[in-house]
């Protein structure tokens, strides 16, 4: 199984391609708010995934050292999602709300697809 840093590096690479597609969509289509919402949601979603990677490393270290196990940063990630949605709600002329929520889930969709591809390759 791939380590978390490798998975996160692949996530970042996919995010850059997605952001390039969003920039093209924002620049050349009349759906600017939709593509801006996807982009801002994907950025916040990747931030959430980065927090999860950091907390999982800390969690693993705590278990291996026999220390007390801390949280995985659920409230911080939840707050980040709320911040993305609040940004979309407060600036509806620039960001589409539903596409922002979809963008928040994109890193997890990338992770799911990557796991399927990895499973098929190793079979």
Structural features, described:
The longest helix has 34 residues, at 32-65. Helix 2 (32-65) runs antiparallel to helix 3 (74-90) and helix 3 crosses helix 4. The model has no long low-confidence stretch (mean pLDDT 89). By secondary structure, the chain is mainly alpha-helical. It has 4 helices and no strands. It starts with a helix and ends with a helix.
List the helices and strands and how they pair.
Blueprint: H1 4-28, H2 32-65, H3 74-90, H4 97-121
Helix pairs in contact: 1-2, 1-4, 2-3, 2-4, 3-4
Q: Please, how many helices?
A: 4
Rg, nearest Å = 16 Å
Low-confidence stretches: none
Spell out the helices and strands N to C: HHHH
Structural class: mainly alpha
Number of strands: 0
**Average residue-wise pLDDT:** 89
Strand content: under 5%
Which percent range fits the helix content? over 70%
Coarse shape: flat
Distance between the termini: 13 Å
Summary?
Helix content is 82%, strand content 0%.
């Amino acid at each position: 199984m791939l380590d978390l840093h490798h998975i996160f590096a692949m996530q970042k690479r996919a995010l850059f391609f997605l952001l390039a597609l969003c920039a093209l969509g924002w620049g050349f289509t009349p759906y600017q708010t939709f593509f801006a919402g996807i982009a801002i949601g994907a950025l916040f979603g990747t931030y959430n995934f980065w927090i999860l990677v950091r907390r999982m490393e800390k969690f693993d270290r705590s278990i291996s050292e026999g220390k007390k196990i801390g949280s995985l940063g659920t409230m911080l990630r939840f707050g980040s999602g709320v911040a993305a949605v609040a940004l979309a709600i407060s600036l509806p002329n620039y960001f589409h709300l539903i596409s922002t929520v979809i963008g928040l889930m994109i890193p997890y969709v990338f992770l799911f697809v990557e796991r399927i591809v990895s499973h098929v390759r190793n079979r």
